Amino acid sequence: MFSSSSTMTDGDYDYLIKLLALGDSGVGKTTFLYRYTDNKFNPKFITTVGIDFREKRVVYTTNSPNGTTGKTFKVHLQLWDTAGQERFRSLTTAFFRDAMGFLLMFDLTSQQSFLNVRNWMSQLQANAYCENPDIVLVGNKADLADQREVQEKQAKELADKYGIPYFETSAATGSEVDKAVVTLLDLVMKRMEQCVEKPSADANTSDGSSKLSAAPAQQKKCAC
Amino acid sequence: MTDTMFGSENEQWVCPNDRQLMLRAKLHTGWSIHTFQSERQRKAQALEKRELDLIMSVIHRAEQLELIEQHRIGRLVERLDNMRSSAMGNGLSQCLLCGEVFGLLGSSSVLCLDCCMKVCTKCGIETTAGGQKRTQWLCKICSEQREVWKRSGAWFYKALPKHIRPIKDSILDNRKPVIERGEQLPVARSAPISYTWAQSRVYLSESDGSDAELSECSSDRKTFASETNQRRDSESSGGQVQTPQSSFTSPTRGNVHIESPSSLVSEQSSSSSFNPGLEDEVIDHSRTLLTPPALSRAGSLRSSSTSQKSEGPQADANRDEDDLDQAFGATALVASKKEEEPDVEGYDSDDSTTLGTLDFSLLYDQENNALHCTINKAKLPVPRYKKGLKPMDHNGLSDPYVKLHLLPGASKANKLRTKTLRNTLNPVWSETLTYYGITDEDMVRKTLRISVCDEDKFRHNEFIGETRIPLKKLKPNQTKNFSNCLEKQLPIDKTDDKSLEERGRIMISLKYSSQKSGLVVGIIRCAHLAAMDANGFSDPYVKTYLKPDENKKSKHKTAVKKKTLNPEFNEEFFYEIKYADLSKKTLEVTVWDYDIGKSNDFIGGVSLGINASGERLKHWFDCLKNKDKKIERWHTLTNELPGSGYND
User: Fold this and answer.
1) How many domains would you assign to chain A?
2) Number of domains in chain B
């Protein structure tokens, strides 16, 4: 459904969507975004200083109720990368407000980063543009099976508690990386449709996969 | 976003929002450079120059993307305006866009969902929501409007963000000046566009008023930063609006709850006050056919104040009454003998009846602690023990009036008096005098003494006769009629009189407020105070103390009520004290007579606390037991000064 194209510095796109990655330091936020935008892996760990962002042009296709291919739009993604260290906390939270969707990341090989997911959820509810923003929970470093500390069942229970989707990704192998971002983009686009066409309900039940991701969206309030 | 944060010189200055201030604090720019931080904190949080440069480069990169975005939004807005200006029809009988006429011979029309205008099927767009089978139509203008709203991010910022509209003559050589000039234009043009959409959105979100308000409020903003800040402010102000409402509702309910019992008590009080008057009126009417009720009521109104001398018409009415009494003289004599009580002092029947008879009625209103004494009439003989002397008056008649006292403790405080009737031995007063603050304890202990006297202008008033009624004979809320023989004046037990002289009564309310964590003392009113001035009145006021009081901070005073022995204060004083400490305290209430230029006179006082006794101790205990409940009681003022060394 999504195809990537080279990043262009012109205004030839239909939507500008701003997403933000947050989580503890060292969980792989920068590496994850680098894998998504450039499809490359940098094993070296370089601490992000404060704030950074990457861009990517993708093609988004809406699902029509009759099953045929809907309209396609060019979406320009601005992917904000935040520093997970405490000393940059007040700087990075200032950027939460302008993000339309969030990638909440933790490290599957670090139990502490998983426990801190609750703290990051509190930060989101306090600093985001509304109290229930679109969030996707991402457990990174899934390729390190021998060092795994967080079981998939635990993470799914936490995600179900918050009503958000959960993906286990690997920036090293690129597994599930695209799917996580695509799911978040889907949630944001659906919320946009609901905001503009508020009188009519946007219940897209024909597609099975979209029904799964639409169910949490229906539980949330409209941003308008 | 970031462009507004570090606004260019051409822009209008906008007060920075919280996020900008936060960012400036971290970057040590703007106002926050001088914020108070300890040196250690500042070093720990300070960013290195290299880190600062990295962050600034990221922000600069974001600004470039933002500029591209603003141009793109400007093109969208331009396209929408062109579509609007090219509309030709009126939207009613013609297509809104192409102006084609509708009708039987014309094309069919559809109604736009957003603007409610009619368009032909070619100029409309059919939209089918997934969940609904019914198709909805939008005109191309409204459809384009929705697209602009989505693509510009206005759905997210709740208003059209800042944008740069294209210039018509695109000359490459003048590109930079054109861009700079273009930046100023959106301020003027974006508002009407947003407002138009807000109008449309108001229609869409008709059921949700608050959302419409937010949209309208947002549409008034012109700049991006204000819009972002306004959204946050709208949310927070929305919360603030709700919080005062909830806090406002709570005291309202509390007030209603407090006022309801007060209203009920007030209604009961007023209704109870009315009933005794009605009963008295009936009694008066049955006994004195010739006396109009208005005159009787007038007599009652004057009962608390000084007696006034009767006027001529009154005397004429009494003379008519005199004739009637003579006609029924034999009947009265028989009735008088029947009601005769055993003579304790050994006088024969002739001597006991020679002082005359008195008709009166008593009613004890238990709820209001009021004793109503209605003095109807008397039949007085010519005193025989002065037969050899010259008569008291030239015409052999008297000027009688009636005095009331409550025994023991007779003093000026509890004296009541009727008016004086001139030149008659058969006076008809038809007057009701009322004692207030009479408790059940008083009804068991007290005796009412009724004295008939002869007023003399130039000499001392003469005593005619008296009668005494133990108040325990009366049943509460039940009128009892008396027709007693008058007797000689009995000696007063002076020992009892000297122990504690009564100085009147005071009604006090007590309530311990858990909410305020203190004692609320209410001085309601006083009754039958002792007269301290030569004019027969006092100018009373009340002082209250909560003892022990090291700094004398617990002193409170009421206002001075001029020239009255029955003042109404209705004042409340608050003492901040813990509930655990309240039981160790004693409330002292003193009543004083205010004198200008002289030291004030002490009228009476009362103490409430653990060391008190009787009704006062009960009142204090009831206050401690029942928190947050207002308890009113009458208390007797005594001449004993609470505490020593008190002077006003």
Assistant:
1) 1
2) 3
- Partners of A51 on chain B (C-beta within 8 Å) are 55, 58-59
- A193 contacts B232? CB cut-off 8 A: no
Q: Is the CB of B149 less than 8 angstroms away from the CB of A55?
A: no
pLDDT > 80? residue B33: no
* Beta-carbon pairs below 8 A across chains A and B: 104
d(CA A114, CA A118): 8
What confidence tier does B385 reach under pLDDT thresholds 50, 70, 90? very low
Within-domain flag for B182: no
Angle CA B197–B201–B206, to nearest 5:
155
Domain assignment of residue A212, yes or no = no
Q: What are phi and psi of B501, to 5 degrees?
A: -80, 135
Of B457, B414, B450, B459, which is closest to residue B429 (Cα–Cα)? B450
Residues of B in Cβ contact (< 8 Å) with A54: none
Instruction: Among B98, B127, B152, give the residue marking a domain's end.
Output: B152
Q: What is the tens place of the pLDDT at every residue in B180-235?
A: 333 333 333 333 333 333 333 333 333 333 333 333 333 333 333 333 333 333 33
- Interface contact B113, partner A, CB < 8 A: yes
How do residues B391-411 score in pLDDT, each as one tens digit? 444 456 677 888 887 877 655
- The 8-class DSSP code of residue B101 comes to B
pLDDT tens by residue, B576-608? 787 887 877 888 888 888 877 767 778 888 888
Say how far apart CA A14 and CA B152 lie, in whole Å. Answer: 9
Tell me the mean pLDDT in the region B111-119: 82
pLDDT digits (tens, 9 = 90+) for B606-622: 888 877 777 778 788 78
Give CA angle at B188 (B187, B193), nearest 5°: 95
Q: What is the DSSP letter of B162?
A: P
What six digits make up the tokens of B270? 């007023």
- Residue of A72, A96, A192 to mutate, testing the B interface (most B Cβ within 10 Å of its Cβ): A192
Residues B508 and B625 in one domain: yes
Q: Which domain holds residue B444?
A: 357-486
Which of A17, A47, A51 has the most B C-beta neighbours within 10 Å, making it the best mutation to test the interface with B? A51
Q: Which domain-ending residue is among B460, B486, B512?
A: B486
Collect all residues with Cβ–Cβ distance below 8 Å to B240 and sequence separation of at least 6: none
Checking if the pLDDT of A134 tops 80, the result is: yes
Residues B386 and B510 in one domain: no
| Contact with chain B for residue A13, Cβ under 8 A | yes
Residue B515 domain-assigned (yes or no): yes
8 Å CB contact between B143 and B125: yes
- Considering the domain architecture, whether residues B482 and B509 belong to the same structural domain is answered as no
Residue that wins the pLDDT comparison between B529 and B533: B529
Mean pLDDT of chain A: 80
Contact A224 B69 (CB under 8 A): no
Q: Are B225 and B162 in contact (CB under 8 A)?
A: no
Confidence of residue B346 (pLDDT cuts 50, 70, 90): very low
Q: What is the CATH number of the domain that holds A73?
A: 3.40.50.300
